[in-house]
Specification:
It is a single chain. The protein is α/β, with parallel strands linked by helices and about 425 residues long. Helix content is about 40%, strand content about 15%. The chain is built from 15 helices and 13 strands. The strands form four sheets. Strands 6-13-12-11-10-9 form a six-stranded parallel sheet. Strands 2-1-5 form a three-stranded antiparallel sheet. A two-stranded antiparallel ribbon has the order 3-4. β7 and β8 form a beta hairpin. α10 packs parallel to α11. The longest helix has 17 residues.
């Protein structure tokens, strides 16, 4: 139960059901939330206020406050800036189970809201699986050059297959799939009606009349959105705006209960992805794409990819501006993606979760705190070494050796303990 004096403050939050409500007096600590969805987040909000940090998964990322913690009478009402906050670890399944368990635990501690039903690409994987329908119903799939494409083999020309969105049976399969996902759990609030990565969109006459890849994608999403609206008035139909569908549609308007998950597909826009690491999103060719989606959608979401091979730099100088830009453009969901590294990549994952909760955190102060708490007396040495490694590509061997020696010398001077291990 929310204390009566705090009700008004809770209702001012962007997403009250996930708000943390904490009241501290000299007699008790009251930690709650208006909704069960927010209660676990309230616990971690309280621990964060106490000074507990989990910078990365595992013991090396954990930093507890030193000594006694003094509490003052206080009232805290703290809710997220983005409704959906999730993370996709591309390396999952390739590491020991213990490491994956630590990663899953770390995610919970970062106050996500990732149990919302969105399942990524769904056309031929979930809506109309090849093994179930291809033999008897090739008409469910794209027509290219007068022939139905029912092979999922990437052949360099068609890639993964798409669906014939004008086909009434396909539309019904998509509607049935959406109702199944939403009916499976009360936590599921977005269902994915999302094409594959390929460019093999249907070219039959009815689909051609609908339009290009983005128009066809939105067309099928709209069909499902209209069908589920009565039974699931709060649910959304999501889809990736990615590669061939990254641009907003030219002909079709979006239903109000749809949401595009915009992926930073720079190559699709004729822009070198690596160049992105030198500037904020609002200064790249992706910015007008996001603005256009915001113009035609009631809400948007972002799926933000950073791969080890693609973005080996420290993004934090403008990562905060990126999240602010997303929020300015009707952003209600932020899905981050990374791969194996828990050093610079791992911290980016940490900052992504922090910024998805609050775009206005004091990044410089928190970064200084991270180095100080993780590395103690070696903080400045580590910062210097990592900054030089992250900001130079390719890295001269002699510089790498110098930084390695600098770290070794500094570590040798540290007493045993967590800072030395890190």
């Amino acid at each position: 139960k929310i204390p009566e004096p705090l009700q008004a403050s809770v209702e001012k939050e962007r997403y009250p059901n996930q708000a943390s409500v904490i009241r501290i007096t000299d007699q008790k600590i009251h930690v709650t939330s208006p909704h069960g969805r927010g209660l676990g987040k309230a616990v971690y909000t309280f621990l964060h206020r106490l000074g507990v940090r989990w910078y990365t998964p595992g013991k090396w990322g954990e930093s507890l406050p030193a000594g006694r913690v003094l509490l003052f009478d206080d009232v805290i009402v703290d809710g997220p800036d983005f409704m959906f906050r999730s993370f996709y670890w591309g390396a999952a399944g390739t590491f020991p189970q213990s490491m994956q368990d630590e990663h899953q635990q770390w995610e919970v501690r970062m106050r996500p809201d990732s149990e919302f039903g969105f399942g990524g690409h769904s056309y031929s994987e979930q809506i109309a699986p090849l093994e179930k329908y291809a033999a008897e119903h090739p008409e469910y799939y794209s027509m290219i050059s007068g022939k139905r494409v029912v092979s999922g083999v990437k052949d360099g020309q068609f890639g993964d297959l798409q669906l014939c969105v004008s086909n009434k049976a396909v539309q019904q399969l998509a509607i049935d799939f959406a109702r199944k996902v939403l009916g499976r759990s009360a936590l599921n609030r977005i269902v994915s009606i999302s094409p594959n990565d390929a460019g093999s969109f249907c070219r039959c006459k009815p689909c051609d009349a609908i339009g290009g890849p983005s128009d066809q994608t939105v067309f099928l999403a709209n069909v499902v959105a209209r069908a589920i609206r009565v039974d699931y008035p709060e649910a959304l139909v999501g889809f990736y705006a990615y590669q061939h569908t990254v641009e907003a549609p030219e002909r079709i308007k979006l239903e109000p209960n749809t949401v595009p998950y915009i992926v930073n597909s720079f190559n699709s826009l004729g822009f070198d992805s690596k160049t992105y690491s030198t500037m904020a999103v609002r200064k790249t060719p992706l910015a007008p794409v996001i603005r256009k989606w915001a113009d035609v959608s009631k809400q948007t979401a972002i799926r933000f990819n950073w791969h080890v091979w693609q973005y080996p730099y420290d993004w934090t100088p403008y990562l905060q501006d990126d999240f602010r830009f997303f929020l300015e453009n009707k952003g209600m969901g932020a899905m981050s993606q990374s791969w194996a590294s828990f050093v610079h990549q791992g911290w980016l994952n940490y900052w992504a979760y922090r910024l998805a909760w609050d775009v206005d955190i004091d990044m410089e102060a928190e970064k200084a705190e991270l180095y100080r708490r993780c590395y103690g007396p070696a903080a400045e040495t580590v910062r210097e070494a990592l900054d030089s490694i992250q900001k130079l590509q390719p890295l001269p061997v002699d510089l790498l050796r110098n930084k390695q020696q600098l770290l070794k010398t500094t570590v040798a001077e540290l007493p045993d303990g967590a800072s030395r291990e890190r």
